[in-house]
Amino acid sequence: MNIPIQNIYYLLCYAWDKLPEKDVVAVDAIATTTLADLFAKVLINGTNHLLKRGFDRGYVSQHEWTGRLRGRIAFQETVRKNATVTGRLPCDFDELSYNVLHNRILKATMRRLIRTEGLAAECSEGLNRLGRLFSDIQDIDLTGRVFGQVQLHRNNQFYDFLLKVCELIYRNLLVSEKPGTSKFMDFVRDRRQMAVLFESFIRTFYRIHTDFRVKREDINWRWLAADQVAAGLLPKMQTDISLTVKGM
Known about the structure:
Helix content is 43%, strand content 14%. It has helices at residues 5-15, 19-24, 35-53, 75-80, 101-114, 121-131, 158-172, 191-209, 228-233, and strands at residues 58-66, 72-73, 89-97, 173-175, 182-184, 212-215, 242-245. The protein is of the alpha+beta class. A hairpin with a 6-residue loop joins strand 4 and strand 5. The chain contains 9 helices and 7 strands, in the order αααββαβαααββαβαβ.
């Protein structure tokens, strides 16, 4: 399958329903033939856009031994360690900080992408430059679970687009034979992954550019199973896309 690099990006923007972000993080002028370079450029351009708006902050839970009362005293720890002797108390409090989960994921993704085999020098330099802006952000070990733990709101929705890019990078970076490096899997050659992507693209495209009502729907079997065990053996039938004329 020979698909132009920029077209992959547009497919993803449609599939994610992120068309406004497509114009903010333009890739038309990017001269690259590799997915790793493409997504590095998307992260660089997207993070530069965040810089103009200001990185997001949020209240982060802190635990600190202090001589000045802040937030809530951790009484069990106070008694266990006989804290009154030291004149300092363990306190739990919330502090407004840039060290929120979505910033930590961005930093971790940049660090992983920098170590990708064959990444263009221009991309490595751009990621390194931006990475220095995250020096006060704590490191995090990326797992598939952390992406589902991010909580965003209306004012920081642009992060949702960048986090989708980060998750795509995370799921397609493979450990390389060279220690400390990774290589980007060409998911375009993954027929299952591309099938899911193309189906999502088609659904969003029809929803935006036509008057059809677009959905996926389950198709019921024409007979009833004898019991629940038998019902569990029947394969699930679901359409890739169903188009219905509005008003019908």
